[in-house]
């Protein structure tokens, strides 16, 4: 079986390779660098509940030890606390960790995966594609030829790679995107931040700190701090427009003034671990697919102002694309299914970029709307914190209610109470072999999940409830689906009544909620979810029997 060629070994590329391996699709990852990321404590990522769970499925749960689960977000303005938010079940805690810890865990998992191969020191030069696959021509660092390539050819220092598809995960300056001649419009240097990682004891107990207009001199207008393991903190200072030069002396002065302002007025003992300047760009590729070549991660989009996720969205690209590529590769869907990747993911990122672009002028004081919003401090605080909290248009998990893969409801509002289109709630479920696991643990294993809400099954032996009630009929319906599917049972699911049947995509989005078993609607919905045809959408919309 020819592999999927992935260009770039950042978080998105590594995650996509591992996700495809879970679907039994081989990959070759071509990486221009010659080794793992250097250890940089000032370069960190924040993973939300869904992306942290995806990374844990792919890399193992051990990688979370390299990060910190935030306990809450505290917003300050001058000397006053404006708001304090605590993470809980309703507002799940994100994971803050150095990017090198994430990529290291993904690389180690890739080394253990027989269906995935990482080829370092490989620079992409040319792409050709036809109806049967993609050919990538590369050169290698130092002028030495790649070895062990799947069907390589060429002279010294060159190689030719053949695959069914190619995905460009090669960052903001993507060679794949340039070879496809895809435009990458947007805004340059939307924000600039001076960044420092320090080891220091601060009085915030695992909270993220958002401090606007701090009262001490030398810290600028906004300061953000996030904790890391071992009393480490990443601190960001928003720089004024105009390209201020951040000298080492000026950065140390900012560190000392900020640490003193957050303690008792005297700079506490600290160790400066790492520094940098982080520039936020907002860009969105015009197209994310050109035939058998696709874009993902920073090659497709750049964002990050006001706490909007960046690496998060790259991981979501990988989760969305992997199962669709797998269905196409295994013959369960046609190439048009890949169009839905761009439709779904580009719409989500475009929405976040619009929200950030609309909020920035209001929060930075350059908007004509600001004088018209008297007494709107609470609204301003929400705009400022929503991206950091993972809610609202800046930070809420993506939903695909209007996707072409979401079956039309039988009547207006159907499924709204259980969140059709949203990411599923992670509830305990029982598999067909009788084992009890978390629902999220079953994602990415088969094409579809079918979940029956059946109160009371937890106290019965499996051999009894598998032959009782609606289970025999539902099991028969699931076995007859045109795509692979797994049947699960749960005692309860938020918003769902007893005997509700939920159809769940491999990336965790809820596609359909049925009241009882309706074989034809379930079959039609499965076809719609997998992009089999458009007629299934109308068939799935007819009223249940």
Descriptive terms for the model:
545 residues; eight-stranded mixed β-sheet; alpha+beta; 27% helix; six-stranded mixed β-sheet; globular; disordered C terminus
What can you see in these coordinates?
The chain is of the alpha+beta class and 545 residues long. Helices cover 27% and strands 27% of the residues. It has 13 helices and 26 strands. It has helices spanning 11-22, 49-59, 99-112, 175-179, 248-262, 311-329, 339-364, 377-389, 392-395, 462-465, 471-479, 519-529, 535-540; strands at 4-7, 27-30, 44-47, 68-69, 72-77, 80-86, 95-98, 116-119, 122-130, 133-140, 158-163, 165-168, 186-199, 207-212, 222-228, 232-238, 271-284, 289-290, 293-295, 301-302, 428-430, 436-438, 448-453, 485-490, 500-504, 510-515. The strands form six sheets. It has an eight-stranded mixed sheet, with helices on both faces. It is globular.
Tell me the number of helical segments per DSSP (H or I, 4 or more residues long).
13
Fraction of residues in helix: 25-40%
Please list the strands of the largest sheet in the order they lie side by side. Answer: 6-5-14-15-16-13-17-20
Amino- and carboxy-terminal Cα gap = 44 Å
- Tell me, briefly, the overall form: globular
Question: What structural category do the secondary elements indicate?
Answer: alpha+beta
Mean pLDDT: 89
| Low-confidence runs | 143-151, 367-375, 534-545
Report on the biggest sheet.
8 strands, mixed
How much strand? 25-35%
Gyration radius (Cα, Å) is: 25 Å
């Amino acid at each position: 079986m020819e592999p999927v060629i992935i260009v770039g070994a950042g978080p998105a590329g590594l995650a996509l390779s591992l996700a495809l391996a879970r679907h039994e699709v081989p990959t070759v990852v071509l990486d221009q660098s010659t080794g793992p990321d250097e250890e940089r404590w000032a370069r960190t990522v924040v993973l939300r509940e869904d992306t942290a769970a995806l990374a844990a499925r792919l890399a193992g749960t051990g990688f979370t030890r390299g990060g910190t689960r935030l306990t809450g977000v505290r917003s300050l303005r001058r000397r006053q606390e404006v708001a304090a938010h605590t993470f809980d079940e309703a507002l799940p805690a994100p994971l803050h960790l150095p990017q090198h810890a994430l990529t290291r865990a993904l690389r180690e998992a890739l080394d253990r995966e027989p269906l995935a191969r990482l080829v370092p020191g490989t620079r992409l030069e040319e792409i050709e594609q036809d109806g049967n696959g993609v050919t990538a021509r590369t050169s290698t660092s130092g002028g030495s030829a790649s070895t062990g390539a799947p069907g390589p050819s060429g002279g010294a220092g060159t190689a030719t790679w053949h695959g069914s598809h190619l995905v460009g995960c090669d960052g903001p300056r993507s060679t794949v995107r340039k070879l496809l001649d895809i435009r990458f419009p947007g805004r340059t240097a939307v924000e600039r931040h001076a960044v420092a990682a320090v080891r220091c004891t601060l009085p915030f107990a695992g909270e993220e700190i958002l401090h606007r207009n701090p009262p001490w001199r030398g810290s600028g207008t906004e300061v953000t701090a996030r904790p890391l393991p071992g009393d480490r903190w990443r601190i960001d200072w928003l720089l004024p427009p105009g390209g201020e030069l951040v000298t080492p002396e000026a950065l140390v002065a900012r560190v000392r003034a900020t640490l003193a302002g957050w303690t008792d007025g005297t700079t506490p003992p600290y160790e400066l671990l790492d520094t940098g300047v982080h520039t936020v760009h907002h860009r969105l590729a015009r197209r994310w697919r050109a035939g058998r070549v696709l874009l993902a991660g920073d090659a497709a989009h750049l964002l990050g102002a006001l706490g909007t996720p960046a690496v998060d969205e790259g991981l979501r690209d990988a989760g969305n694309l992997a199962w669709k590529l797998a269905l196409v590769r295994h013959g369960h869907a046609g190439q048009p299914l890949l169009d839905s990747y761009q439709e779904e993911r580009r719409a989500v990122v475009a929405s976040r970029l619009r929200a950030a672009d609309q909020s920035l002028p209001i929060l930075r004081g350059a908007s004509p709307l600001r004088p018209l919003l008297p007494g709107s401090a609470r609204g301003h605080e929400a705009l400022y914190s929503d991206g950091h909290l993972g809610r609202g248009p800046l930070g809420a998990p993506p939903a695909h209610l209007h996707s072409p893969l979401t079956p039309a409801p039988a009547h207006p509002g159907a499924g709204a109470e259980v969140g059709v289109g949203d990411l599923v709630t992670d509830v305990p479920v029982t598999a067909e072999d009788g084992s009890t696991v978390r629902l999220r643990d079953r994602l990415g294993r088969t094409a579809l999940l079918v979940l029956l809400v059946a109160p009371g099954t937890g106290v019965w032996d499996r051999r009894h409830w598998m032959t009782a009630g609606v289970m025999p009929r539902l099991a028969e319906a699931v076995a007859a689906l045109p795509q692979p599917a797994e049947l699960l049972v749960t005692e309860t699911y938020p918003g769902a009544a007893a005997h509700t049947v939920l159809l769940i995509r491999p990336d965790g989005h809820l596609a359909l909620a049925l009241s009882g078993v309706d074989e034809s609607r379930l079959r039609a919905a499965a076809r719609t979810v997998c992009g089999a045809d458009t007629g299934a959408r109308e068939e799935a919309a007819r009223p249940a029997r």
